[in-house]
UniProtKB/TrEMBL annotation:
Pfam families: PP-binding (PF00550). The lineage of its organism: Bacteria, Bacillati, Actinomycetota, Actinomycetes, Mycobacteriales. It comes from Rhodococcus sovatensis. Residues 6-84 form the Carrier domain. This is Acyl carrier protein.
Amino acid sequence: METLNSEDVARVRDVLDKFGKLPVSAADLDSSADLYDNGLTSHASVNVMIALEDEFDVEFPDTMLQKSTFGSVDAIAAALAQLTD
C-alpha cells in the first residue's frame, strides 16, 4: 500500500485543522481515528477535499469520492499516495 512521508501527513493534518472544523486538533488524533466520529461533517469533508486538491496539486477521481476516502488521516494519506505516485 502506498504511503505518504511524515511531512505530507503533517500537511494533511494542517488541512484538516483549517477546513475540517473538528472540535479537536488533527494532530491530537490517532492516524486511524474515524474523523466523522470526531466531528467531521460531510460538508466539511468537501472543503477538506478541495483544500487537499490545492495543497497536493491533485484531483480526486469520482471513484474516490466516498466517505471512506476521508474517514481517517490514514485513509486520506493512502488516497493521496495513489494520486501522487
